[in-house]
Design a protein that fits this description.
mainly alpha; 6 helices; elongated; transmembrane
Length: 201
């Protein structure tokens, strides 16, 4: 059975070695410089999360408004609401997935920064491989999150296109008839009297 004294000596030697390495301020400065790139990447992910959370809040607010107004809508408006609610639900799910991927990516990058400092002072086998794998995983998570974000944006553009078509179809003939003389008068002013004379000729 191994006596506890050699173990304590090894722990003391390792602690002293780590203390000596951390006392090197120049090495610490170089390590901080090397960790700046992942830190800036975390800041970029934070900006992306801000965009995603704001879009999620707007979509959830729109879905709640439709649910509150559903009972007071007429038949046509109910049909449009029933067609829009599944799109809103899908947008919420896609935005949630994008947020999860971005948060997981930020956590992986934070682990990369922490392991960079640990690896500079403590010799751990295959630590470099673990750091590289975590960084690649963080990049893949960002890619997946952006793909979810792109899908959510496409759905929102498609729903806006449908609303625009509904607005164009719902224009009343009375408004079109009232706007007709004004449009003809504006066209006559634009063409001028010479065009009218040539038409009569």
């Amino acid at each position: 059975m191994m006596s506890p004294k050699p173990i304590l000596e090894r722990v003391a030697e390792s602690t002293a070695e780590v203390a000596l390495r951390t006392a090197d301020t120049q090495g610490i400065g170089q390590l901080v410089d090397g960790a700046l790139a992942p830190v800036f990447l975390i800041a970029g992910i934070g900006a992306l999360l801000n965009v995603l959370t704001s879009r999620l809040a707007r979509v959830v607010s729109r879905a709640r408004d439709l649910e509150k107004q559903f009972a007071s809508l007429n038949d046509d408006a109910r049909q449009r609401a029933l067609a829009e609610l599944p799109l809103l639900d899908k947008r919420i799910a896609l935005t949630h997935s994008a947020i999860y991927c971005c948060v997981a990516s930020a956590l992986a990058i934070a682990l990369v920064v922490a392991l960079l400092f640990v690896g500079a002072f403590v010799e751990i086998p295959l630590l470099g491989t673990l750091i590289a794998a975590l960084f690649v995983l963080a990049m893949l998570l960002i890619v997946v999150g952006l793909v979810y974000f792109l899908r959510e944006t496409r759905i929102s553009i498609r729903s806006l296109r449908v609303r625009r078509e509904l607005m164009e179809d719902s224009r009343s003939p009375a408004l079109s008839a009232a706007a007709g003389p004004r449009l003809r008068e504006a066209g006559a002013r634009t063409l001028g009297p010479d065009t009218g004379a040539s038409d009569r000729a």
